Amino acid sequence: MIFFKTVSRLAGAVLVAGLPRAVVAAGSNNYTLTTLYDQWNFFKEFDFQTFDPANGFVKYVDAVTANKDKLAGYTDGLIYLGVDHTNKSTMGAMGGRPSVRVNSTKQFNGGLFVVDIVHMPSGKTDNDSCGLWPAFWLSGSTWPVDGEIDIIEGRNTQSTPINTFHTGDNCTDMSNEGSREGTILRGTVCKGGTGCRQDATIKGAYGADLNSAGGGIFVLEWAEDHLSQWFFGRDTKMPASVSAAIASISSATPDYSSSVPPKPALQIDVSGFGTPITRFNSGPKCSIKDNMRNNNIIINTDFCGWAGKAEEWGTNEICSKLGSSCDEYVANHPEAFKDAYWLIRSISVYQKSGDDAPGATGNSTTSRHKREQNGIGGFRKEL
C-alpha cells in the first residue's frame, strides 16, 4: 500500500529554502533557481481545472474529488496525478473517464524549466496506450495568442517525443535549425491547434520506455529568441550542474524555523548541454518574445480527442482493433489505464539574473518552508 499525504488548496507562491549550492561558472548561460514545486507545496501552488477545452473523452474533477477518489496526492515523496482505472464510464456528452488537470497559479515569461519525472501515463508497453493523450505543457491565459509550448505530449501508441509550438496569427516562418539530427519539423506556420510540430527520434524519452528506465529529466529553455528542449535519462551522463541541482532538491527539506526565505542557491549552466532535441527559433516573421507570454504550467491526462480522431484511431492498426471508436474503448476498459499516472519528483524554474530576465508574475517572496496544511485528507492506494 502506498500512503498519500495531505492535498492542500492554500494559495501562495514558492521559493527555495535551505538548498545546498550547485557550483557553476558565472556567465550569460547561467540560470539561478527561483521557483520550486515538489512534495512540500505542489498542491498549494496548482489549481484543479474541471473544464476540458480540448474536447476529449474526459471528466476532469476538482481537488476534493481527486483526493477522495485517489486521483491526486503524494506518495514516497513524489507527486501523483492519476485517472480512474476501476469504473466504466458513460458515453455521450455527459460521459468521460475521470482524470485531473492542474494549472500553476503562477505565470511565467521565460526561464529554464527543469522537470524531474519518474513516471508518465502509458500502458505497460506503448502498444497498450491506446486512447491516452497525456501532456505536460506551458500555455497562456488567452490561447493561442499568448502561446503554447508542449514539453511532453503524445497519443495512442506513440513511442518518441513530440514538441509543438502554438501561436496566434503572427508566426509564419518557423525554423528548427539547431535541433538534434533526425528531428523533423512539420510545418512552419504555428497558428492555432496545428502549430509547428517537431517529431524527435530519441528513444527512452516517452511512454513505457521512459517509465521502465525510472523516468528522466526534461529541460525547456525559454529565451527571447528560441525555445530549446533537452532530455537526460537516468542512465545517461547529465550535465554536472543539472545532476547537482536535482540531487540537492531531492535531498533537501524545508527550514520551518525561518520566516524569511533565503536567496536561492542552485544554479544551472546550459553551455554544456549539447544539441537540444528540439529548437524553435525566432525569425523575421515569428518572434518568440512576441508570441509567448504569461504562461502557466499545465499537467493533464486526457483521453481520445486528438488521439480519437478518425485519422488517428481508425488508421492505427493496434488501436482500431480494440473498439469501434476511441470513446467506446476508453469507456468500457478502465483496467487498460492502471498505469496512466504521473509521478513527478520536482518542477524547478530558473531565471537569468539582471534587468533583462523575463521573470514570472505572482508572489515570488514566499519560501516553501511553510508546509501545506488544512489538507483534504490522506488516503491509500494500490498502484
TrEMBL record:
Region named Disordered: 353-383
Annotated ranges, domain GH16: 37-355
MF terms in GO: hydrolase activity, hydrolyzing O-glycosyl compounds
Keywords: Hydrolase, Signal
A GO biological-process term: glucan catabolic process
Leader peptide range in chain numbering: 1-25
InterPro entries (UniProt xref): Beta-glucanase-like (IPR000757), ConA-like_dom_sf (IPR013320), Glycosyl_Hydrlase_16 (IPR050546)
Database matches in PANTHER family: GLYCOSIDASE C21B10.07-RELATED, GLYCOSYL HYDROLASE-RELATED
Protein name (Swiss-Prot/TrEMBL): Glycoside hydrolase
Organism: Rhypophila decipiens
